[in-house]
Design a protein that fits this description.
Elements: H1 3-25, H2 36-54, H3 57-65, H4 70-79, H5 82-94, H6 103-119
């Protein structure tokens, strides 16, 4: 067997092994009927999460500083549609917590540290 043919066989076997490994790790899809109560549960949990956020002491202070009572804000959340509450909960989840770094910021910091270590 020539070197080129052997390299080609190794490449093909590595590709097959990678494809089999990817197929083994691939998540399986599940499809099933859900009930109405299960379909409306996320909207209720989103509404409860938003209300829980409004009940936090620092949020209550901020609302009162802006001239809004916490009870009025909770009543407004109750008056919102499920879609609006879901959108608001998604925006709350997307906010960065104090002191948290995004992936891009973490990568830049790590690169700077690695460069400094290599230079020193």
């Amino acid at each position: 067997m020539t070197q080129r043919l052997r390299n080609r066989l190794i490449e093909i076997s590595m590709l097959l092994a990678l494809a089999l490994a990817a197929a083994a790790v691939m998540p399986r899809a599940n499809a099933a009927m859900i009930g109405t109560d299960e379909a409306t549960a996320p909207a209720q949990s989103d509404r409860e999460r938003v209300k829980a956020l409004l009940a936090r002491p620092e949020v209550v202070k901020g609302l009162e500083k802006a001239g809004v009572h916490a009870q009025d804000a909770a009543a407004r959340v109750d008056a919102m549609t499920d879609e609006e509450v879901s959108q608001l909960a998604g925006r709350i989840d997307a906010l960065i917590a104090g002191g948290a770094l995004s992936n891009e910021q973490l990568i830049v910091i790590l690169l700077l540290v690695i460069i400094l270590v290599l230079l020193l």
